[in-house]
Description:
5-stranded antiparallel sheet
Amino acid sequence: MPDLRQPPAKISPLFVNRFKVDDAAPFKRHLNRLEVEIAREDYAGLKRVELLEPFPEEQFFVPFIDLTERLLHTTQNNYNCQLLKELGIRVYLDTPRYHIYYRLADRCIRFVPSWREEVLGKFFPQLPTQDSDWLACDRHLPGFCCKFLADGAGGALLLQSAQADPDLPLLTVSHGPYDPHTLEVALYFLRFGKGRAAIINLGFSGREPLTDGNLQKLKNWGVPLNPSNIDVIYPYVDDRGHPYCYKHEEGLCRYVQHLAGPRPDLIVDVHGYVGTHADDERVLVGMGGLPPWPRLSELGRFEQHGETIHLLPKKVFRRGLAMVRELSEEIYVQFCTDSHEACHLGMLGGLQLIGRKFDPRSEVSSLLPGEERSFLPTENIRWLPSAGANAKQRIEACKLDSQALCLHVEIPTRIRRQIALKMKQQAINDSLTSSEI
């Protein structure tokens, strides 16, 4: 296997040409080299670019939000920032439709969120532009209803079953289009009776890459954007300067109040990650890397001998681990119990966990220089608790009267692709069954 601790030799020149990260910008962001160049994550269906002909009249742009100054102020891609200034591009957002427009002096380019529209098209007869009522969606998810919630940033899709066991977990897909096929994973669990509801983010977080085909079209139209940290299309922050990438974790309570039944006592937050080798099938379960620190005693009964820890998870934790185990035979649980005290545990038979405690300052490294892609060199495995998003969700979950346990589940590329194929096959089988009836 290639040594992923160094940048691969065949990184596309597009990802390094005339580009540098501006460390003085308000937010620290990183490139997409690991996902795009190594894992070959599938971003092909996220966006579509179109050249509008004829050129729209002035009145066309009046209802839209002018994002130009916000994007120029917050982008870390100096090349793209300068390009927009040199070409005099004004950037507009059509909030209800979630379309972005690049307005130049003699032409106009539209960015269409094609993944979002495809997902909504499966569940609604028309693309919703405001909050919808609950609608039955038996065709794609038997026994479930769907609802759209608008939020000015792509919105959210809510799914729930009135017949499902109320003890089943709530699923969240907080990063939606940025983590390919995590939607399919959530639908897989719902379809086969492993979850009672799901909250799916349909908006971008301002860091999703463009495909080579879209980049070539833009170049032909005189807008040769650089694809690294492409945060000059959909914004990274809202109008208050707050990152969109946390909107679902921080908005958890708002979404949950729209769901029927008791408040969830178990939340499984589905994410995607790139492993340390091409065939990596290890599923990682993060229990927190920032305050409020989880305590071992809160997770179950444990014994500690030196650095070795043996944990028997409590009932609600076991339910979550049993569900996750369907994805892989290799499950690892990771969390921090203090700022300099971390735990890395592997799952044994009977859902027991055994592993070690260590100081992350001395053992955690980055897979790629210049990127926050942490891993443990000793085990050659990715390290989750460096990410703070699940801490935000756990803080919000504390506000629910159920005191829900949150599992931050990171699924490697290979398994997500397998689940997506299973769901495609299931759709074909459903269609054949429907035709026979």
